[in-house]
Amino acid sequence: MTTEPATEETTASPSPRLAAVVLAAGMGKRMRSKLPKVLHRIAGVPLVEHVVRAVAPLAPARTVLVVGHGGEQVQAVMGSGYEYVTQAQQLGTGHAVLQARATVAGQADTVLVLYGDSPLLRSTTLADLVRLHHSRPGVRATILTCIAEDPTGYGRIIRDAGGQVFDIVEERVATPEQRALKETNSGIYCFDSAWLWPRLAELLVHPGAGEYYLTDMIAVAIREQPGSVQTFQVSGMEEVAGINNRVQLAEADLVIRNRIRTRWMLEGVTMIDPATTYIDVDVTLGQDTILYPGCYLQGQTRVGADCRLGPQARLVDAVVGDGCVVGTSLLEDCVVEDGVDIGSFNHLRPGAYLSTGVHLGNFAEVKNSRLGRNVSQGHFSYIGDAEVGDNTNIGAGTITANFNNGVKNRTQIGPNVFIGSDSVLIAPVEVGAGAQTGAGAVVNKDVPPGALVVGVPARVIRWLNGGPPERGGPAAPPREGSDPPA
Predict the structure, then answer these.
(1) Which residue has the higher pLDDT, 70 or 15?
(2) Alpha-carbon span 59 to 5, nearest angstrom
C-alpha cells in the first residue's frame, strides 16, 4: 500500500567500535520555554532525535545522551534505546563529555561527539568524518569544519604554514586577521578513545569562563604530537547549525521539510504547491498520489498509491489505502481501506475504521467505529462507538447517541440497512440486517431484521421484502425489548 522512499543516506558502519556522545544537557534559555531545548520538534521529531537518527546508520556500539536540564523529560520522550548520563552542573562542553567516561571508556575505539540541537546533520557527512579519522594512524582528533560566508560567532580554525591545524580561536578573542578566516569549528569531533579520557580528566578550567571547554583538547593534542589533529571540511553552515531560539527552529524546520518534499517528489508523488505541503519525517506515501495545497501529513501517517488529498487535508497518524480521495478533512489515528471517498469538512477521530468503498459526505464525523464495505454516510451525521454492516446507508443528519450517565454504549447496525435522515439511535441498540428507519426516527429499542420503524419512539410499522414472517417475510422474531410488529 505504501512505498518506502529510497534512503537519502544509506551508510555502512565505519567502525564496529564507535561510541556516539550526544550533548543534550543545555537549558536553552533563548527558547523561552518550559520544554528542554532538545525536545522542541522539527517535522514531527525532537531536535535530539534528528541527531541520533543521523548517527544510527553508523551502528555505534554505544549512543550516550548527556542530559541535565529536563533530563527526565528527555528520557521519557527518547525511550530506552539509548544510554543516559547526567551533567548535574553545567560546567562546559569538556565537563559534559567527561560524564560519559564510565559508560564509554574501554567500550569503543573512537568517540564521536555531537550536539543534540543540530538537527540538520546528514548520516553521510558523519560517516565520512569517522572514516577519515580511521584512515590515518596516530590521529588523536578529527574536527568537522565548515567554510562559511559569514562565520560570525564561530571559532576559527588556525593553520600553520604547512596547512596543519595549529589552534582554534574563539571569535571574542580573535585578531582582525583571524576573524577574516572563513573556516570555522562546528564543535563536532572524532577522538581516539584511549587518548581522550585520561586527558579530558586533567583538563583545566578555561580562564575567565569557569568552564571546561572541549576545544581545549585540540591544543592538548597538538602540543603532545604536532600533526595529530586533522579536519573534515564541508561547505556552508547548514548541516552544523545549532538551534538557539525559535527563529532558528523555524529556519531548520524549513530545511528539513524541503528535504522531505524533494525526496517524495523524486519517488513519484505530485505536490501541486510544494511550499504549502507539510510532511513529517515518518510519513510514507505511495506513487502517483497527488497532494493539493495546504496538506498536513503528520506523525506516522501512511498514504497509499493513486490517492488525492486536499486541498487543506490534515492527516495525523492515519493509515490510508490505495485509490482514496480525501477532501478538506481531518483524519486522526484512524484506518481507511482502499477506494474510500471522503468529502470535505469531515472528522475521523481515533478508532475510526472505514472499509473498502465507503463514501463519507460532508460535515460527517466518525469516532471509534467500524464502517463496513460500501457504506455510505451522509452529511451532518455522527457515528460513534458503532459497528456498521456492509452496504448500509446512513442518512443525512443521523447520529448515534452513545453517551449516557458517564458510560459510552455501542450501536450495532447490520448489513443492507437504510437509516433515514435525521434518525437518532440511542445506544445500546441494534438494528438488524435489511431493516430501515424512517426520517426523524428515534430508535431506543432493538430493530428486528427486515423491519421498517418510524416515529418517536420508533415502532415497527411493517415488514420489508415480503411482509411479516407468516407471509414469507423475515423469519427472525423481534428481539427482547423490541416493539412487536404492527
Answers:
(1) 70
(2) 21
- All cell numbers assigned to 394: 446512513
Find cell 508523488 and name the residue: 269
Q: Which cell numbers in the block locate residue 287? A: 506513487
What residue has cell string 492527516?
315
Q: Angle of helix 123-135 relative to helix 47-55, nearest 10 degrees? A: 50
Q: H or E segment at 178?
A: helix 176-179
Whether 286 contacts 320, CB under 8 Å: no
- Whether the CB-CB separation of 380 and 394 falls below 8 Å is answered with no
Question: Which uninterrupted H or E stretch holds 413?
Answer: strand 411-413
Alpha-carbon radius of gyration of the chain? 31
C-beta atoms surrounding 118 within 10 Å: 24
Q: Is the peptide bond before 428 cis (omega within 30 degrees of 0)?
A: yes
CA distances from 284 to 5, 260, 264, 305 (A): 8, 10, 9, 10
- 3-state DSSP assignment of residue 216: helix
**What phi, psi does 54 have (nearest 5°)?**
-65, -30
Angstrom distance (rounded) from CA 220 to CA 229: 10
pLDDT tens figures, 371-426: 999 999 999 999 999 999 999 999 999 999 998 878 899 999 999 999 999 999 99
Catalytic positions: 379
In whole angstroms, give the CA distance from residue 414 to residue 372: 9
Residue given cell 548520516 in the structure block? 123
